[in-house]
Amino acid sequence: MSKHYAAMAFTEGVRAVQHQYGSDAFYDRKRVQGIAAPGPDALTDDEKEYLSERDSFYLASVGETGWPYVQFRGGPAGFLRVVDDNTIGWADYRGNLQYISTGNVAGNDHVALIAVDYLHRRRLKIFGHVRVVTAESDPALIESFSDPGYDAVVERVLLVAVQSYDWNCPQHITVRFSAADLEPHLATLREEAEVLRRQNIELREQLARLTMPENGQST
Predict the structure, then answer these.
(1) Which of 86, 120, 198, 210 has its CA 20 to 30 A from that of 182?
(2) InterPro entries of this UniProt entry (predicted)?
């Protein structure tokens, strides 16, 4: 848990529930420390490496009605980039044209992200302020976030000024495997299957020759 995470997350309502279940004394120390500490919290090498390896994350924003909106964002591994110690960003590709997240952050720049590594059962939560950059305002930045190998149209880039973050425990994270995770193992199995296939063909040919009579006709 970074220095300011508790001060941002543990509101009076949250603290009341913590008191009910007996965790308030432990967490209140972290909250008070966060209030007194200067901010925002810089990302360490652990967070930077973790984020650079992700191929997806979940983004939460809040609309004018007060309802939160959670959106899945995905792309090639590394599409979520660490710009500097306090900034992360990603290319926002053309989707279903609803623009709910984009509209929400136009009125309220507070966002939360959660990036999950299902294979190793890890998850990182981030609080931050988002800024939307378009091709009209900064075409060079848009170009720098484009991926020639990924067939999708970049409509904008979202930059998040990280304020705080927290690593969750692995409890209750279901292990899942992506195609990329399985590929090294599947490649080995495919090679073994091909060897067995060729051996089977050779054995069939040998058996056919053994059962062939001298006149060339099988018995």
Answers:
(1) 198
(2) Pyridox_Oxase_N, Split_barrel_FMN-bd
* Domain ranges (residues) in the chain: 1-39, 42-168, 177-219
Alpha helices in 56-178 (DSSP H): 100-107, 139-144
Instruction: List the CATH code of the domain at 42-168.
Output: 2.30.110.10
Closest CA to 27 of 1, 56, 53, 66: 1
Distance of CA 70 to CAs 79, 101, 200, Å?
A: 19, 8, 53
Burial of residue 167 (number of CB atoms within 10 Å: 0-12, 13-18, 19+): middle
For the segment 142-187, what is each residue's pLDDT rounded down to a tens digit? 888 888 888 878 889 999 999 999 998 888 899 988 888 888 888 8
Residue with tokens 């959660």: 114
